[in-house]
Amino acid sequence: MWLLHRNFKAPLGKELQDGIVVLDSGCGPATWTFDMAKEFPSSKFHGVDITPLSFPEGVKPDNCEFQVANIAEHIPYPDNTFDYIHQRLLVMGLTHESWDKTLKEMFRVLKPGGYIELHEPNFVKLRNTGPFIQQLHNTISGMLESRQIPADIALQLDDRVSNAGFDMEQIVITPMAINHKNKAGCLLWEDYRHAYMNIRPLMSMQNPDWESIEAYELHMDACGQEAKERKTYLNWYTYVAQKPLKEH
Predict the structure, then answer these.
(1) In this predicted model, what pLDDT tens digit does every residue of 8-57 receive, in sequence order?
(2) pLDDT confidence of 124, banded at 50, 70, 90?
(3) pLDDT, tens digit, for every residue of 75-119?
(4) Which residue range(s) make up the domain with 81?
(5) 19 lies in a domain?
(6) SS3 track for the chain
């Protein structure tokens, strides 16, 4: 993600250049996987996602492979396979229990001394919000928690990662402007609005007023204007942790 200025924060620049084995966990359309594979042709990249519909069609780099799997149940690789595991934006995809299972699976397939890197936004509390955005986020928090999905996973990962056996190396909080400041802020708002429009049916279960697409669109438009006027920021959390060389 260019808003973060680079595709990774784990201290593996030289290793990636020389050639290591990397997993993109919950890779989705594999944008990150492809970018990294092109930047580091000596490394081997594996993408795993629960649905094959996410995988890109057509030509892919020779150093990329993809598998269909539920990462919370089983990552389909032997123990100690990967040097580096990357995962981002699964805040709406994993339950409380699934997060712990996924981290244990990551620990299993990661080599001793290898790194994991997790990226998640703090959806629960944004900076400089008003009533429209606050209503939106109260609703999504209620919707996620009703499905046993931790809406505040960005704030929980420090403890969860440590409990899975990793040594925390770095926590980076990046404030991201929503619909203000620069082009990046406008682009983030477009992604933000698109994501919320896609989940309108789920949001309307918490707020029946939003069963109307028109009413929901008006609310989203109000959120965009509010973010611009109040200069709203979303905090993006990045966690980098290492698997110990020896068991504690």
Answers:
(1) 999 999 999 999 999 999 998 888 999 999 999 999 999 999 987 666 66
(2) confident
(3) 999 999 999 999 999 999 999 999 999 999 999 999 999 999 999
(4) 70-243
(5) no
(6) CHHHCCCCCCCCHHHHHHCCEEEEECCCCCHHHHHHHHHCCCCEEEEEECCHHHCCCCCCCCCEEEEECCCCCCCCCCCCCEEEEEEECCCCCCCHHHHHHHHHHHHHHEEEEEEEEEEEECCCCCECCCHHHHHHHHHHHHHHHHCCCCCCHHHHHHHHHHHCCCEEEEEEEEEEECCCCCHHHHHHHHHHHHHHHHCHHHHHHHCHHHHCHHHHHHHHHHHHHHHHHHCCEEEEEEEEEECCCCCC
Number of structural domains found in the chain: 1
CATH number at residue 139: 3.40.50.150
Q: How many CB atoms lie within 10 A of CB 20?
A: 20
Report the amino acid identity of residue 90.
L
Q: What is the pTM of this model?
A: 0.92
